[in-house]
Amino acid sequence: MSRHPTTDDWVLIAAGVTVVYLVATRWCMPTPEAKRRISFAPPAGCVFLVPTAVVKGYSVSFTLFLYSCVLLTIVIILVPVRKRVAADILEQERNPWVKVHVNTATLWWIGLSFVGCTAAMLYLRQFVE
Prior knowledge:
Elements: H1 7-28, H2 32-38, H3 41-56, H4 60-78, H5 82-94, H6 104-124
């Protein structure tokens, strides 16, 4: 038995990650407009990313790995600071002419969690193919 997931496994993983992403990000967004915007990423990724990768000859498994990692990174970045981000989004939508400054702790969390997710993705890359 191979320790590497097959393409079929990556399809299931990507489908599960998409559901987690949609539930988590819709839970974090304060307005219907924000929920609609954040929900557009997975269908766009599936429609454009996978066919483009296949046409260019890239591995479907690796493409689905990247897709899953990006969605999970967004969830990991967004969920812990959801209240602050939701408040900022709500304020920006109510006052589009006023620049809303992001909280310093939120900026640190976004930066550090992005670096951590990128490091994890690079480490897990060896198990894809």
